[in-house]
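dumping the sequnces here before i forget
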Amino acid sequence: MARMKFLCDADRCIECNACVTACKNEHDVPWGINRRRVVTINDGKPGEKSISMACMHCTDAPCQAVCPVNCFYTTADGVVLHSKDLCIGCGYCFYACPFGAPQYPRVGNFGSRGKMDKCTYCAGGPEADGSKEEYAKYGANRLAEGKLPLCAEMCSTKSLLAGDGEIIAQIYKERVLKRGYGSGAWGWKTADHETIAS
Amino acid sequence: MTVLLAKFRVIVGALTLLVMALCAQPVSAQQPTSVDPQASAVKEEQLFQEMNRISGRCTIPDQKACTIEQPAGRDWRHFHGVTLRWIGGVVIIGILAVLIVFYLWRGMIRIESGRSGRTIVRFNAFERFVHWMTATCFVILALSGLNITFGRPLLLPLIGPESFTAWSQWAKYAHNYLSFPFTLGVILIFLMWIAGNIPNKVDIDWFKRGGGMVGHDHPPAFRFNGGQKAIYWIVVLGGGVVAVSGYVLMFPFYGTDIHSMQIAEVVHAIVAVLFIAAMLGHIYIGTIGMEGAFEAMGSGTVDVNWAKEHHSLWVEEEKARTGANDVRRQPTATPAE
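..and the predicted 3d for all of it:
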């Protein structure tokens, strides 16, 4: 079985934010919630890098470990999903997540959070694949249709790669070999305790 | 003359150009033949070494999103999943075990001289109201708080995910809303009992004699003995810390970053489990641990013999205030007009 991963080739990312827009549009993500975002490090300085980041679908996911109601599950493809029916909006997954992936709609009093929302790797949730309920809660289920996450699919510079971890690692390695440099697979070490040997 | 001057100007101009060209030569020589875009590029490893998190600039309003990696979440995960469960489990089960062993060995501490039949007012209606308001909130806060840490391994397998989520959702609301009356209660307790809870020399003697918990000793005490003063300060200080850290958690990212939120949770959880352990001891001695103690917070009056045994100096004080009459004068509420 394929182990699905994201890989952002930071040497190609031009911070166009199209991945962010595509994600918001594809899943009707509510205002104020960003499942994916682009961050520029050392902005305006020599050697600046832009990286598109979302849920990295970690191996042994910290969110899953700390959730007090155990609402997370990992699919056979290695995608970390959660049930909005079980989530109580406690916010613990955000404290544990190394990538700031969990997002909460602001509902109710004080800073109290609604049901958590995060990147689903375009794989929906526990409801039946492609059902109306699934779309309302988690957005489109492209994976069930045999398609990869839209953010990566439409990336104009093919900076953002999605797919079987081994295949995208191979693509990245070939790129690095050809152009002679590469800043590595950002977040892989944190997410999976392993990175691409360069 | 003018022709000579013109020639001279041409020569000076040519020399100047030559000097400029010579000066510029090394600059162009420094230009590399090919551009290495990696020369000054930021590296993930290096950024981690610098600050253990990677942040940059992002264009969305939620500035928390500008941090793309914060592996410190792993430490917090270990605390929440392992450390806290051990601390909480050991402390709470430990205190329960100690109390059970103590009860089996010592039994209920009786009023040695028996009940006199006469009573003395210990806590007025307002004091009892504040105590029970705080106590009720505390019990609900404690149970709903323990649910967040221990519910998943202990309760979830028993009642199933749907029921557990429904209960946890209500527990979360209760935890958030009851924090307000609880905090009010802690503030009122602080104000209304501060006078009797300043530690003094009598307490040192009281602690030296083990508070009379062992044997039939009754060390003298004013209105609050050393143990009660300890409970008072645990409530005031512990309650203060859980309240402050709790409000930080309740208003997430209001002037705090993720690191502060993680620390707030750690402080809140550790102080809370210690607080729970202390309160179990308090509940024990106020109920089955000691005859005649519960009445103080129940009806508000205690037997005079109980008071003489456990709060001898307080009884003397009260006697001096009210004359020979053993019964303390009811505090009269003065109407506003």
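Chain B is about 65% helix and 5% strand.
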